[in-house]
Design a protein that fits this description.
binds s-citryldethia Coenzyme A; 3-stranded antiparallel sheet
Length: about 375
């Protein structure tokens, strides 16, 4: 065996092979650049591509979309649980519970065959939006709004949250974020899913674990943390002062930096014009100016560009979405990527079990408690 390599956080370590996405020269899903997918495709079509490896024919897309839309329902027992969970439970915890609960009512829950995993992935992608939207309505004292079967996931998310016909440009902006959040190689939550899959556990266990990982503010939770500071800054000048002081305190500015992208996250560039357009449409130009100044200062002071969460958080805010739904939206989309990685891991599996470098106590013998002082 080669000399063992150790890098804190596994930084730069190749921990496996994948054919699902590449981030070496920009981000590609199954070889297709996300710039083209964001411009020409839809979340449903990209979900098919990532899960199956090829863009669908018209017949395949219609069948897949039909499967998704038929699965957009929740057992009453789960709706009741979503009503009963205490009001102050964070929405990401509810998503984690929801993914696990969905396994209890999935007839194929224990079947880890590729076809069963694919079927379960479709049901999870179809049902997690209802977990989020139903929970939000119930915690707001409102009745749930069931999905419209003939509509897209993005359209239905806005519909189920508000019970009003969503604006087409809002639907498209949301759909583009769902496309961009689908997949990103061996990020922390995806690697979590692969570790669980490598033990030959099931998809619901892998997705539940991945949601736990994505909740962290160093990972998916950043799109909500962005709004913590953006919503408190009322001018570019105030923002400049705040961010310079934060950087002096060695604080991490949420929405900036990336373990892999050191010169810029291509997803952030794609979402920027959607932010600008929505900000103008919703009277949020001041927030865009604040965001622009913060980006300018972080680049000048630390040479660190924004990642996908910096524009995504603002875009969701301009859509009028509650802040604690932002990372759940990331969950809904990334469930596609997690599922594809579970399928890939189990298709050519090797238990993921790295070693650790021991840095603890020297070897020593047991001392009876009477002699321990
Ligand atoms: C996602 O991996 C993926 O692909 C994830 C993701 C996906 O699609 O799955 O892309 C989604 O998680 C995006 C990242 C969202 N997280 C945040 O926005 C949180 C803020 N960002 C940082 O915590 C940080 O940039 C990380 C965690 C994302 C990456 O950090 P690294 O690679 O561990 O880098 P580091 O912490 O070792 O920092 C290196 C230097 C340090 O400076 P020095 O101490 O050497 O002087 O860069 C600085 C850091 O202080 N730095 C930052 C910073 N990020 C790094 N300084 C200020 N603000 C930041 N955000």
């Amino acid at each position: 065996m080669n000399e063992a390599i150790y890098r804190p956080g596994l930084e730069g370590i190749i921990a496996g092979e994948t054919s699902i996405s590449s981030i070496a020269d920009g981000l590609r899903y199954r070889g297709y650049p996300i710039e083209q997918l964001a411009q020409y495709s839809t979340f449903e079509e990209v979900a098919y591509l990532v899960l199956h490896g090829e863009l669908p024919t018209r017949a395949q897309l219609d069948f897949f979309t039909g499967q998704l839309r038929q699965a957009m329902e929740l057992p009453q027992e789960i709706v009741s649980t979503l009503r009963d969970i205490p009001a102050d439970v964070p929405m990401m915890d509810v998503m984690r519970t929801g993914a696990s609960l969905l396994g209890h009512w999935d007839p194929q829950a224990q079947d880890i065959s590729a076809q069963a995993t694919l079927d379960k992935a479709v049901r999870l992608v179809a049902r997690l939006p209802l977990v989020m939207c139903y929970r939000h309505r119930l915690r707001s004292g409102q009745e749930v709004v069931p999905p419209e079967p003939g509509r897209s996931v993005a359209w239905n998310i806005l519909w189920m949250l508000r019970g009003q016909e969503p604006q087409p440009d809002h639907v498209r902006a949301l759909d583009v974020t769902l496309i961009l959040y689908v997949e990103h190689e061996f990020n922390a939550s995806t690697f979590t899913a692969r570790v669980v899959a490598s033990t030959l556990s099931d998809l619901h266990s892998a997705v539940t674990a991945a949601i736990g990982a994505l909740k962290g503010p160093l990972h998916g939770g950043a799109n909500e943390r962005v709004m913590d500071y953006l919503s408190k800054l009322s001018s570019a000048e105030e923002a400049e002062t705040w961010v310079k002081q934060a950087l002096e305190r060695k604080e991490r500015i949420m929405g900036f930096g990336h373990r892999v992208y050191r010169t810029g996250d291509p997803r952030a560039a794609i979402l920027a014009p959607y932010c600008e357009q929505l900000a103008r449409q919703t009277g949020n130009e001041a927030m865009e100016a604040v965001a622009g100044r913060i980006e300018q200062v972080v680049r000048e002071q630390k040479n660190i560009p924004p990642n996908v969460d910096y524009p995504a958080g603002r875009l969701y805010y301009y859509l009028g979405l509650p802040v604690d739904l932002y990372t759940p939206l990331f969950v809904i989309s990334r469930t596609v990527g997690w599922s594809a990685h579970v399928l890939e891991q189990q298709a050519a599996n090797r238990l993921i079990r790295p070693r650790a470098r021991y840095v603890g106590a020297e070897p020593r013998d047991y001392v009876p408690v009477e002699q321990r002082g």
